[in-house]
Amino acid sequence: MNQNRIKQILSSSADIEVKYNGASVWIDQLNEDGRTATVHLRGPLEERTIVELHELVEE
């Protein structure tokens, strides 16, 4: 996924499904380096992970 699409998803009020390694995640923020984002799994666990943008897939 690219930086512009991440920004659109973050500013949208819609529930846009994004997956990381097959798991549904919420995007918390686009990181300052412009190549990574901070995400957490949808559900009760809110452990945050930094991932490369190209690893995120919009469903």
TrEMBL record:
Superkingdom as given in the UniProt entry: Bacteria
GO term, biological process aspect, one: sporulation resulting in formation of a cellular spore
Keyword terms, alphabetized: Sporulation
InterPro entries, sorted: SASP_SspH (IPR012610)
Subcellular location: Spore core
Pfam families: SspH (PF08141)
Family: Belongs to the SspH family.
Protein name: Small, acid-soluble spore protein, H family
Taxon lineage: Bacteria, Bacillati, Bacillota, Bacilli, Bacillales
